[in-house]
Design a protein that fits this description.
The protein is of the alpha/beta class and 388 residues long. Helices cover 41% and strands 15% of the residues. Helix 2 (18-29) runs parallel beside helix 13, helix 3 (48-59) packs antiparallel against helix 11 and helix 5 (103-114) packs parallel to helix 6. The model has no long low-confidence stretch (mean pLDDT 96). The protein binds pyridoxal-5'-phosphate.
Length: 388
C-alpha cells in the first residue's frame, strides 16, 4: 500500500537544518569534537527541591490516575500567586489559568480553537517555528511580520495593511524574543493592545523567556498593560525558567473565554499533565525565586565571554538583556547557511542559520549559550583561526 501524507504535512515548510544535521552527523562519526551552540535547551540541571518533590509525588497512587485537562487547582493557584508576586497580576485560578504540557503544546493548539480555514494569523519572522505550523494545521494563512534590527526586532504594526488586519484572528508575539534576544518595552505592548482592540484580534504572547533576563532586568507581562486582559492570553513555561525542558510543563493565563477555548481543544486531544509533575511545578513556583539567581549568573558570564570574543573577531552582535541566544550578523558575502557551514567545517562549531526561523532571519545566525564557559572560550579560540 502506498502511504500518502495529508496535505497539512506536505505544506510544512522544508526543514532547513537537514543539511547542517547531515554534516554534523558525518563529522561526529569521524570523531571530530563539535561545540554545539545550536540547541535552545539548557544544559544545567533542574533544581534539587523540584526533583525531590517529583520523587515523593510519584509514589502517591492518587497521582497515577488521569489528571484533569485544566490542571490541578493547587498548581493553578500556585501559578496565580506567582503571577501576582512577579507581575502584580490578579488572576482567578479557576477560569484564567490553564496547565499545559509545555507551552509549545498550547501554542500548537490555540489556532484550532479560534482560526477558521482561510483566516489570517499574524506571525513574526524570524520567529519560533510553531506559530507558523500551528496556523497551517488549523487551515489558517500566516502573514509574516518582519522583525528588523532598525526597529529593535519589534514588528511594525502600522505596516500591516488594513485588509490583512481585518482578516486576522490571532497575533503571535514573543518577548524576550527567540531567536533575536530582543526585549519589548511596555509602550510596544500598549500599541499591541490598541491594535488588537481596533481589529478584534486575539493576542497570544509567548513569554517563555520572561525569567531568563540579565543585569536585574525583569521583563513585564503583556497582561499587565491596560486592556490587555480583554484581548489576549500569555503562554508561560517552566522549561527555561527552571531548566525543566524535558518535564513538559507550562501554562496559559489571561482572558477566560480564550483560556476556555484552548481548554476545549485540549479536553478533546490530551488528558492533561501528570499530576506528580504538576506537584513539582507547584513546588518550584511557590519556593524558588525567579529569575533563578544561580542560572542567571551563569548565563550572564557566558554571554559576556561570547559577546566580547565575537566582537574581537569582528562579528556584529548585540549584548542581550534576556534569553540565552546571541543573534549574530553574518559577514558580507555569506548567506546564513553558508556562514553556518563555514563555522561547522572549519571550526567544528554548530550554529543555527537565521533563515530557519523565517525568511527575515536571513543574514543572521543564532548561537545558544547552553554550553559551559570553558567550551565557549574554546569556541572563540577556534573562531579566531577561521578565515572569513
Ligand atoms: C522553548 C520555547 C518554547 C516552548 O517551551 P516548552 O518547553 O514547550 O514550554 C516556547 N516558545 C519559545 C519561543 C521557546 O523558545
Amino acid at each position: 500500500m502506498r502511504i500518502e501524507m495529508a496535505k497539512r504535512i506536505d505544506q510544512i515548510p522544508p526543514y532547513l537544518f537537514a543539511e547542517i544535521d547531515k554534516k554534523k552527523e558525518e563529522m561526529r562519526k569521524k570523531g571530530i569534537d563539535l561545540i554545539d551552540l545550536g540547541i535552545g535547551d539548557p544544559d544545567l540541571p533542574t533544581p534539587k527541591p523540584i526533583i525531590e518533590r517529583l520523587k515523593k509525588a510519584a509514589e502517591n497512587p492518587k497521582n497515577h490516575r488521569y489528571p484533569s485537562y485544566e490542571g490541578m487547582i493547587e498548581f493553578r493557584t500556585a501559578v496565580s500567586q506567582w503571577c501576582e508576586r512577579r507581575f502584580g497580576l490578579k488572576l482567578n485560578p479557576e477560569t484564567e489559568v490553564l496547565s499545559l504540557i509545555g507551552s509549545k503544546e498550547g501554542i500548537a493548539h490555540i489556532p484550532l480553537a479560534f482560526v477558521n480555514s482561510g483566516d489570517i494569523v499574524l506571525v513574526p519572522s524570524p520567529g519560533y517555528p510553531v506559530y507558523r505550523v500551528s496556523t497551517l494545521f488549523a487551515g489558517g494563512i500566516p502573514y509574516f511580520l518582519p522583525l528588523r534590527k532598525e526597529n529593535g526586532f519589534l514588528p511594525n504594526l502600522s505596516d500591516i495593511p488594513k485588509t490583512i488586519a481585518q482578516r486576522a484572528k490571532l497575533l503571535f508575539i514573543n518577548y524576550p524574543n527567540n531567536p533575536t534576544s530582543a526585549i519589548a518595552e511596555r509602550s510596544f505592548f500598549e500599541q499591541v493592545v490598541a491594535f488588537a482592540k481596533r481589529y478584534q484580534i486575539i493576542v497570544c504572547h509567548d513569554a517563555a523567556y520572561s525569567e531568563v533576563a540579565f543585569d536585574g532586568y525583569q521583563p513585564p507581562s503583556f497582561l499587565d498593560m491596560e486592556g490587555a486582559r480583554d484581548v489576549g492570553i500569555e503562554f508561560h513555561s517552566l522549561s527555561k525558567t527552571f531548566n525543566m525542558t524535558g518535564w513538559r510543563i507550562g501554562f496559559a493565563i489571561g482572558h477566560s473565554e480564550i483560556i476556555s477555548g484552548l481548554g476545549r481543544v485540549k479536553t478533546n486531544i490530551d488528558s492533561g499533565l501528570f499530576q506528580a509533575i504538576q506537584e513539582a511545578g507547584t513546588e518550584a513556583l511557590h519556593h524558588l525565586d525567579t529569575p533563578l539567581p544561580e542560572i542567571i549568573t551563569i548565563y550572564e558570564r557566558r554571554r559576556d565571554v561570547m559577546v566580547k570574543g565575537l566582537r574581537e573577531i569582528g562579528l556584529e552582535v548585540d549584548r542581550p538583556k534576556a534569553t540565552f541566544y546571541l543573534w549574530i550578523l553574518v559577514p558580507k558575502g555569506y548567506t546564513s547557511a553558508q556562514f553556518a557551514a563555514v563555522l561547522l567545517e572549519q571550526g567544528g562549531i554548530v550554529a543555527t542559520p537565521g533563515n530557519g526561523f523565517g525568511e527575515e532571519g536571513e543574514g543572521y545566525i543564532r548561537m545558544a549559550l547552553t554550553v559551559d564557559e570553558t567550551r565557549l572560550n574554546e569556541a572563540i579560540e577556534r573562531l579566531k583561526r577561521i578565515k572569513f
